[in-house]
Amino acid sequence: MSATIISCFFGRTLRNFYGMRGLNNYCLSCCVNTLLQTFSATWELTDLLDRWDAADVRTGKYNVPLQLKKVLAAMQKDLSQPAPHHDFLHCLDKNCIPLRTQHDADEVFLSILDLMQKQMDNKSLAIDIQNLYKISVETHVTCLECTSVQTRASYLLSLPLHIKEDQNSLEGCLTSFFEHQELSGIDCCFCAQCRNKTPSKQGVKLVSLPPILCVHLNQFRNFRGYTQKLDSRVTFPETFNISEILHEAFSADFAQNDCKYTLYAVVVHSGSAMFGHYTAYVRHRRNQRWFYADDSCVKQVSWEDVKTTFGGRSGRSAYMLMYRRGSNKEGQQPECSG
Description:
10 helices; 30% helix
């Protein structure tokens, strides 16, 4: 019996005991399968969807939040078989996330969140779901000629970090994201005071941080009309305090005391930009152990296994990181080893 078969068999036993269920790869669904595993590990999201009474939803077959609610409920059941999710995949297909297509995980993640906002009839719960991931920011643009400042409030649902071609760390990428950038030439901004496009300095300040911090490690670059994958190494911690990394990145209105985050899910991309595969590492919501989900195969792993996704010429690297503010489990501070 091969090591893969033994691993998958053992994984099914663990699913039966711990409630972790895999998902069959159906029509190139590895990207959505991986995101479903991260959603399932986000107990705040599943709890909000459980509170939603969708009895009056019309055209439920094509309603993304309703189908997501159903598949996440199925994934919580302690059964050894993969969870049924074809209805959810066909629902996405009808909502412009087609089957038989390789997708970008961050784009699909944002599309699903957007569709939940549009299709939930309980707008209060829809806002609560958005607020789980909402990073409120202020963008400040300072004209270098008249020193006037323009400020614009906005928000992000995932934090897009630029990856360099050599060694990277999450802490360094976060610092770079919030550094001031000079805008000149074709990047000049219009200054209302000067009534002209002028050189300027742009900076981003944090107004508030969400319960779930989603980080997008963008390893892809457009080179002469082709998308290429960098395969750069990016290290990231199990826990970090963002206030200890970003000393100057907070707006005057920032009033949160708890800025400590703990990792609970990693979306992994393997292969090249054109021919890739997605898998996930997730912490179980009840026992806090790390599990690896590769479509229908689920197995228990360790933090040392998760660290193999730091990447660097292996073709296999972390693409999205999901951090939870405070404890990783209600009433319990997670262990951060093994």
